[in-house]
């Protein structure tokens, strides 16, 4: 592996992130009209193809009708044991974004961000940025330079609303195409919720977040290098009310009050009631998240830095008994966790009060990338001389070392065999994976959470960074994401044409093509930090299988839209 961003080492047989680099997240506009970058920590390790058979990637590509398709997987460890969980954290505790990178290459121009790629990640982030400044001189006027940093080292662009069909230019249906553009209105991810997310990073942008100029053409100031494409929540959620009481200590030598938090009202403690807030109670949907035991009760994740545990008021008894942690979800006795409704309170309040919810150690993430070609928009002026265009069909799979018992009836259910570290399996080997269905977790007008099968990704369009400003406005946009449904009408494939392999190996000045690797966001790799502020992420069992062959049309088993 080659450390393209940050640095990596081998510890206990696994690849460890040993340092990260601050890269541009997006641009913030100050009140004075100036722009200042927002930064977060990124790492990227890629495959060094010169260690393998000469031109292996190119040979497979040429034998496959100049297309490149493959499966890619890795096992990941990011846990509370090596997270920044101090009361004054450098990063928000319980936030992480490790995963797979693919279609990796260096940008044609500039060096901002060092690499362009898709990512498939386990993600849990909290929105929020901090402003920094330093003096640049003396005297009157504004003698400060400003910059911003993501409080969890994860770009808030991953929670942005991209708008609706009203902003799109190329959504006219095409009767001859396999792809019928969808009407859409974004339901973006919600901070605090753990997800599996597909996203892209486009570093054909400068430090101001503008598209890199090509041939003297202008760029767009609202272009962003970081965009979410699709997601599905790893939890089910219901809205609840949390009551906070400050109760005098029963210890005669201790005059302090005790903070107690209950799901619902505790009538025995009404005189001590201080405040209340709305929260979401969470349950693991796929058996992929870690649990801990607190006061002999299993909970989802672990309490935040303040150690707040949400208790069941029905288990309260007078005296020293404060009640047991909540252990039911819709009548089921299962580990549950709590977070404040994402729109409520300040970011540090969310970080302090929320349960920290991690993926299990050595959970597996897998991506299947299938590159296709065809006249997808019925426009002979785009694509090659015949109007044929490239598109990636992307699907995702997850697994874990423990498995989930039961009778498997679908590749999409959570029932699967244990898949421990040190072994390699693929979906065709048996019931070791859960295939991801791209779904959204949105909230209605009362902030009640709803898992919606038709949300979870956008059918949006974005500026094409290489062409914007050089061509007519209507041609400067590309269709970024479309849906791929299986025979059961579930959204299991994401179609995106942002990065394909056309002309990979034919450029007079070729890209630095790494093609795939491993990334992190949300990891602060600063080795000068105190030990309690250091975070660590590990990867192991990084495997791939390249597909030889090419095909035009739809992915096998996937319906036309």
List strands and helices in order, with pairings.
Elements: E1 2-5, E2 7-11, E3 14-19, E4 21-29, E5 35-46, H1 56-63, E6 69-77, E7 97-105, E8 116-123, E9 129-135, E10 144-150, E11 195-201, E12 226-233, E13 235-248, E14 257-263, E15 273-284, E16 291-294, E17 297-300, E18 310-311, E19 328-329, E20 332-333, E21 336-340, H2 347-353, E22 363-374, E23 389-399, E24 434-435, E25 440-443, E26 449-452, E27 461-463, E28 477-479, E29 482-485, E30 491-496, E31 513-521, E32 538-547
Parallel strand pairs: 5-10, 14-18
Antiparallel strand pairs: 1-5, 2-3, 3-32, 4-5, 5-31, 6-22, 6-32, 7-8, 7-31, 8-11, 9-10, 11-12, 13-14, 13-15, 15-21, 16-17, 19-20, 22-23, 23-24, 23-30, 25-26, 27-28, 29-30
* Amino- and carboxy-terminal Cα gap: 39 Å
Biggest sheet statistics: 10 strands, mixed
Q: Can you give the mean pLDDT?
A: 81
Global outline? globular
Cα-atom radius of gyration:
24 Å
**Which residues form runs of ≥5 with pLDDT under 50?**
167-171, 213-222, 463-477, 552-561
Content-based structural category? mainly beta
> Please, how many helices?
2
Any overview of this molecule?
By secondary structure, the protein is mainly β. The chain has 2 helices and 32 strands. The protein has helices at 56-63, 347-353, and strands at residues 2-5, 7-11, 14-19, 21-29, 35-46, 69-77, 97-105, 116-123, 129-135, 144-150, 195-201, 226-233, 235-248, 257-263, 273-284, 291-294, 297-300, 310-311, 328-329, 332-333, 336-340, 363-374, 389-399, 434-435, 440-443, 449-452, 461-463, 477-479, 482-485, 491-496, 513-521, 538-547. The strands form 7 sheets. Strands 1, 4, 5, 7, 8, 9, 10, 11, 12 and 31 form a 10-stranded mixed sheet that branches. Strands 2, 3, 6, 22, 23, 24, 29, 30 and 32 form a 9-stranded antiparallel sheet that branches. A hairpin with a 5-residue loop joins β29 and β30 (491-496). The longest helix has 8 residues, at 56-63. The chain is globular and about 80 Å long. Residues 167-171, 213-222, 463-477 and 552-561 have low confidence and may be disordered.
């Amino acid at each position: 592996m080659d450390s393209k961003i940050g640095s990596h080492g081998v510890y206990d047989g696994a690849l460890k992130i040993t340092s990260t680099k601050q890269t541009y997240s997006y641009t913030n506009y100050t009140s004075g009209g100036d722009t200042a970058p927002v930064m977060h920590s990124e790492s990227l390790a890629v495959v060094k193809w010169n260690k393998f058979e000469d031109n292996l990637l190119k040979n497979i590509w040429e034998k496959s009708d100049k297309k490149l398709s493959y499966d890619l997987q890795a096992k990941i460890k990011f846990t509370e044991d090596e997270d920044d969980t101090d009361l004054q954290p450098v990063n928000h505790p319980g936030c992480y974004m490790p995963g797979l990178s693919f279609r990796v290459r260096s940008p044609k121009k500039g060096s901002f961000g060092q690499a362009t790629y898709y990512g498939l990640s386990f993600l849990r982030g909290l929105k929020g940025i901090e402003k920094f400044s330093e003096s640049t001189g003396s005297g009157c006027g504004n003698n400060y330079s400003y910059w911003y940093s993501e409080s969890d080292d994860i770009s808030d662009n991953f929670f942005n609303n991209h708008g609706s069909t009203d902003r799109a230019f190329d959504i006219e249906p095409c009767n001859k195409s396999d792809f019928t553009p969808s009407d859409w209105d974004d339901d973006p991810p919600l901070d605090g919720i753990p997800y599996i997310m597909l996203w892209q990073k486009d570093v054909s942008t400068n430090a101001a977040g503008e598209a890199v100029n090509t041939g003297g053409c202008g760029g767009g100031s609202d272009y962003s290098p970081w965009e979410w494409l699709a997601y599905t929540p790893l939890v089910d959620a219901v809205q609840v009310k949390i009551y906070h009481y400050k109760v005098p200590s029963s210890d005669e030598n201790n005059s302090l009050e005790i903070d107690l938090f209950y799901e619902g009202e505790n009538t025995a403690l009404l005189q001590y009631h201080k405040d209340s807030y709305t929260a979401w109670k969470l349950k693991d949907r796929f058996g992929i998240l870690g649990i801990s035991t607190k006061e002999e009760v299993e909970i989802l994740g672990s309490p935040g830095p303040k150690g707040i545990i949400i208790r069941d008021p029905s288990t309260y008894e007078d005296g020293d008994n404060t009640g047991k942690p909540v252990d039911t979800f819709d009548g089921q006795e299962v580990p549950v966790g709590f977070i404040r409704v994402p729109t409520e309170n300040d970011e540090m309040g969310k970080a302090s009060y929320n349960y920290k919810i991690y993926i299990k150690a050595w959970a597996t993430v897998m991506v299947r990338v299938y590159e296709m070609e065809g006249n997808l928009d019925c426009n002979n002026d785009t694509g090659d001389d015949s109007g044929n265009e490239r598109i990636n069909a992307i699907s995702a799979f997850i697994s874990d070392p423990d498995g989930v018992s039961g009778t498997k009836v679908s590749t999409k259910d959570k029932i699967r065999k244990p898949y421990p570290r040190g072994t390699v399996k693929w979906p065709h080997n048996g019931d070791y994976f859960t295939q991801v269905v791209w779904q959204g977790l949105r909230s209605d007008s009362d902030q009640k959470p709803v898992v919606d099968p038709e949300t979870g990704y956008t059918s949006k369009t974005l500026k094409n960074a290489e062409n914007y400003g050089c061509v007519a406005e209507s041609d400067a946009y590309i269709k970024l994401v479309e849906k791929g449904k299986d025979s059961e009408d579930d959204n299991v494939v994401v179609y995106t044409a942002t990065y394909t392999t056309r002309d990979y190996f034919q450029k007079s000045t070729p890209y630095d093509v790494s093609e795939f690797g491993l990334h992190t966001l949300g990891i602060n790799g600063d080795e000068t930090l105190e030990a309690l502020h250091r975070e660590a992420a590990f990867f192991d069992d990084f495997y791939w299988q390249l597909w030889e062959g090419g095909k035009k049309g739809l992915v096998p088993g996937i319906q036309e839209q």
